[in-house]
Amino acid sequence: MIDILILVAKIIGALVWLLVLTLYLTWAERKVSAVMQDRIGANRASILGLRLFGLFQPFADAIKMIFKEDFRPSFSRRFLHTLAPFLSFFFVAVTVSVMPFGDRIKIGGRTISLQVLDIDVGLLFVLAMLSLGIYGILLSGWASNNRFALLGGMRGAAQFLSYEVALGLALVGVVMVFPSLRLSEIVAAQGGLLFGFLPRWGVVLQPLGFFVFFVAALAETKRVPFDMPEGESEIIGFFTEYGGLKWGLFMFTDFMEIVIISCLTTTLFFGGWQVPWLGGEGFVFPGGGTWTLPTWLVTVFRVLAFNVKVAFFCWLQILIRWTYPRFRFDQLMDLGWKVLVPLGLVNIILTAAVLSV
Amino acid sequence: MKQAAAVLLEILRGAWITFRHFTVNMVFHTLRLFGIRTRRAGAVTIQYPEVKKPIPPRHRSLHRLVRRSGSDRPRCVACMLCATVCPSECITIEAVENPDPDVQKAPARFVIDLSRCCFCGFCVEACPEDALRMDTGRVDLAERDRGDLIYDLERLLQ
To answer: Is the pTM of this model over 0.90?
Structure first.
């Protein structure tokens, strides 16, 4: 009984964490991009005159979208048209369940892992769910009865399929170095030290793998350098025929993908919840000094470290989105198949060579 | 290979520009937030309704009719030059005999329809009596009702 309660609490906690972070990522994107362009950004939304740098903006957006007309183009497939945004939302939201937020903690003789589902194929689960997200894109393009939306959906599917290959190849190296598909074990394996001072993080062991993974992951979020599927400003994308809350769901999914990709990058390449030189008993610095900490403080530090890393990668993705122009579609395919896939293969061979020595 | 390295360098330089703007602006924003005076603000934005840009001295804004000195009547002698020169045809004048024996006419009605006005300032240039000026400094003239945009003699004299 109490196990079920703990599980429900973990599910609610993870979902609330994801949704709140995503909600405020929409605000952060506007503010960060504004600061990068010497502007101020959304700061007018207020409750009783209280502005707080526009922190209520996401709620204002949500209220606006809820009260918009639920438009459906004529001759569109009603069921598929409604299903598509929910599909893409669901398949992204469900991946948060395998993200390790922290180490196992002991409360009253009970061991609780700070992870909703500690399944042994966690990495494959994330990849599978992100791939299933294609269905949302394809269905929204197909069901809209708009040939431009259909083309946008096709572009999205082609891009996803191409970059999934590179993404998978990049992750093979990680799985070779930390021999597990269980995300909690991958994080635990990154706790050691290299040469006595360097944290044994994935990015140190797999720099090339990290590069390939991050570029492919950026393409998976379908944001600006890779935003061929939607191309909001010029080319017409797959959710052209959506309005109101359904469109909002697509946008929300986009931002949720940023969070998920940041989680995945952190977990696989930047030590997850690991803090450099922080063991279970406290800090053990490479110079020889130690700083003993109580266990609860170590846990707090680790959960905090995970959140800080995720926030950093969200910020980095916003920086990238507001810096670069969009690829042309053939350049996109070139980058995917002629650069990232060979680099991923080279990475696997190099990793195998180093491991076999 | 050489080309790929050059492209990678350009990519990094692009990221460096946005990163530099972000950090420098964030430093200024943070200093201003804690009340420290800085050389410049973190953003070039002017928060319009609260903060207004200074209007240059030769601007053209809402019209006003100048009063005759020692009187509360307008200087206008209803010569119709402004109504004639107006390219938008937004000035309507009805003349009556002026009670002052030295002046021939005075406007009974002087109406400017701002919903037509294009703020070219020709009326001000044409006026031989310097009775019409566009120096009130009022530029936010939007109204919810078209009727409120029609300025008659009394409103123009204010």
So the answer is: no
